[in-house]
Design brief:
alpha+beta, Jelly Rolls, 8-stranded mixed β-sheet, 12 helices, 12 strands, 16% strand, globular
Length: 373
């Protein structure tokens, strides 16, 4: 694998740089970002370097605002109210006393590290960009569409609604992924009940809309980066799902965009991070917010995180999603057109990560909103 270093790329003759060729070389190596780090680089390859206009600008960081922390063990009415305010105002919150044992969280992170630090030839057996594969190791799902590659590798596992054959999972993380998946799915069902109540709906309404019908576990690995100021761990984006539950390790780097300022989401021991997805914002008609977030690259590492996306991916759902009728009125007409999960995901994947939310594509024109209202 020959990939041009950042210093050489930026100062050399640009006609000598073939981005597609270097992306393909990186992809064909099947070794991910960790493979580059293991090669002993001191400069990041050019395919990871953010464009100059991105490096020159950026929203300031707000050190005064803190992400809400919600205690799931509190009185239900208080918890629901806390969830409502966080979903409406921030789109993110940290969850404590969530019922998943600390042992499970620690073993999940340890197994994820073990997986990503397996020999290249072992991980390469799982490396693919085939969309229908339920288990796949890869780096940058939007590698050929994004303006620059992100400094992370991922293991992607479709855990439901159809049970995953355990033999499809790498042995190093097989048992704990299944255990964690079962527990985080139960937690998701609890949260969807509270989100329903927070919208003033029956507690089972979002479950009835199959918001928890399927879920995907993504294990992210962010190696230490020699030039973190030139790239990103994960580009600014919002999540193309109903809800995300995230387990992060102690290193940090996750940030949320709130009122045009970046807010750190610091690791809280034993806590899980919960954020609203695009599809909840769509069906709540902008009541709940799916906010932009990002992960900074870091000199320290590796950083590990485990994301559970509640989305019926690869599941042939026949439900068409639009703003929930009970939430609409003459003063609150629909903001979005109806769509299927498959069409939404297809558009999101084609667009790739970036600050332009996929939700914009599904917004109704003002005239259509008035007609439907």
């Amino acid at each position: 694998m020959v990939i041009t270093g950042a210093e050489e790329s930026l100062t050399g003759n640009p006609t000598n740089y073939d981005r597609l060729q270097e992306l393909k070389a990186f992809d064909d190596s099947k070794s991910g970002v960790k493979g580059i780090v293991d090669a002993g680089i001191t400069k990041i390859p050019r395919i990871f370097v953010r464009p100059p206009e991105d490096l020159a600008t950026g929203e300031p960081t707000d050190t005064h605002f803190t992400i809400p922390v919600i205690d799931l063990g509190g009185r239900r009415a208080d918890v629901v109210d806390g969830v409502r305010r966080a979903a409406e105002e921030v789109g993110f919150f940290q969850l404590v006393n969530h019922g998943i044992a600390e042992r499970v969280l620690e073993e999940m992170l340890e197994a994820a590290r073990g997986l990503h630090e397996l020999p290249r030839e072992v991980k390469a057996e799982y490396y693919t960009r085939e969309s229908t594969k339920k288990v796949k190791f890869r780096s940058n799902f939007d590698l050929y569409k994004s303006r620059f590659a992100n400094w992370r590798d991922s293991l992607y596992c479709v855990m439901g609604p159809d049970p995953l054959d355990p033999q499809e999972l790498p042995l190093v993380c097989r048992d704990i992924i299944i255990e964690y998946s079962n527990q985080v799915h139960k937690l998701g069902i609890t949260l969807f009940g509270m989100l329903s109540e927070a919208l003033g709906l029956k507690s089972d309404q979002l479950i009835g809309l199959e918001c928890a019908k399927g879920h995907v576990i993504l294990s992210h690995y962010y190696p230490a980066c020699p030039e973190p100021e030139l790239t990103m761990g994960t580009t600014q984006h919002s999540d193309p799902d109903f809800l995300t539950i995230l387990l992060q390790d102690h290193i940090g780097g996750l940030q949320v965009l709130h009122q045009n300022r970046w807010i750190d989401v610091p690791p809280v021991p034993g806590a899980l991070v919960v954020n609203i997805g695009d599809l909840i914002q769509l069906i709540s008609n902008d009541r709940f917010k799916s906010v932009e977030h990002q992960v900074l690259a870091n000199h320290m590492g590796p950083r590990l995180s485990i994301a559970c996306f509640f989305i019926p991916h690869l599941y042939p759902s026949t439900i068409i999603y639009g703003p929930i009728k009970e939430l609409l009125s003459e003063d609150n007409p629909p903001v979005y057109r109806e769509t299927s999960v498959q069409d939404f995901i297809a558009y999101y994947d084609e667009k790739g990560l970036g600050e332009n939310s996929a939700l914009t594509h599904f917004k109704l024109q003002k005239g259509n909103q008035e007609m439907r209202g």
